Amino acid sequence: MPLRNKKPIIAVLGMTCCEGCRVAIVDLGERFLKLAGHIIVGDFPFIQEHAKKKSFDLTFIEGTPILPSQIEEIKEIRRRSKVLVPIGACACLGGIQEIKNYRGDKENCLQYVYKNVDQIANPDIKPISAYVPVDFELTGCPINKDELFEFTKKILAGDVFRVPQRPICYECQRKQNECLLQKGLPCIGPVILGGCGAPCPSVGYPCDGCRGPLQKTGKNFDNLKKILNNHGYNEREIEMITERFGGRDQIENKLKPQNTNENKN
Ligand code: SF4
Ligand code: SF4
Ligand code: SF4
Asked: 9-162 is classed in which CATH architecture?
């Protein structure tokens, strides 16, 4: 998916979410301004009032479609985008919103929150890739802005971008952190895709998987579960950790994350 246009048109759009991933893009600061000089900002409602363009070379999209109208909207955005890249745990995994799927009767959940539910649509929550084909995913909660910047530079140059398939433990151990899992804390870093720099275990908080799984987690996850069971965590407690960012189904290997564009060139 190389973009060799002189000034590619880039959009940054969003669905239901906290908008933190778009904030992370703006938080690139000077680098964002420099990048803006090499592209045409086609639509970025976060910083501009009106959309400038109808079709885009590259669209980043954060958030999750949670309404039937948003499901139609994402299909329309796909039609208008040469390259579509969901960003953040919400868009790539389902996000916190997806916890609803794992709580049994979702109508009950709705009634717990709203008094009158007659007019409220209540579809299952799914990542964007469940509705339309995507070209790449940059996950995390929020995204790693440096990773997005590098991705954008490579794509604009027509190069391949790959997220190395290394677990969080790789970065954690390079920082010489004391291993929280070995101390009996419920860290799922061994099956989670690295690239964030392991900020959570570095401050004593177990990784709970906002970047989603490595491409092959199957047996590793079974082994990790055994370790957690031995530390006294039951199945439900482990599920609740993997559900936190909506990634339980991906971690259990029912869906594959997409973090290389090499097959698209
Ligand atoms: S992934 Fe996290 S930071 Fe990004 S939009 Fe979703 S909740 Fe917000
Ligand atoms: S603390 Fe977690 S991420 Fe770090 S090495 Fe141990 S298991 Fe891996
Ligand atoms: S350490 Fe785990 S939870 Fe923390 S940012 Fe990285 S992937 Fe997300």
From this structure: 3-Layer(aba) Sandwich (3.40)
